[in-house]
Write a structure and sequence with these properties.
The protein is an all-alpha fold. It has one domain. The chain contains 2 helices and no strands. The relative contact order is 0.27.
Length: about 60
């Protein structure tokens, strides 16, 4: 499966840690920061993997 978003670019400093628990890039009170770490755990349990790339003028 491939998912893309051509509107947003994820900065490298966030790409390096985006699957760690409690990483919150939204304003305070907007979430727990557990969504992507939960997704990663489920995917790994099924033997899968996630590759993320983000490029200026192309998106994520």
């Amino acid at each position: 499966m491939t998912v893309s978003d051509t509107r947003f670019v994820i900065p490298n400093k966030i790409l390096d840690s985006m699957f760690e628990p409690f990483i919150i890039t939204k304003e305070f009170g907007s979430g727990t920061g557990l969504s992507l770490s939960t997704v990663m755990r489920i995917i790994k349990e099924y033997g899968g993997f996630i590759n993320v790339s983000s490029c200026v003028n192309k998106g994520t």
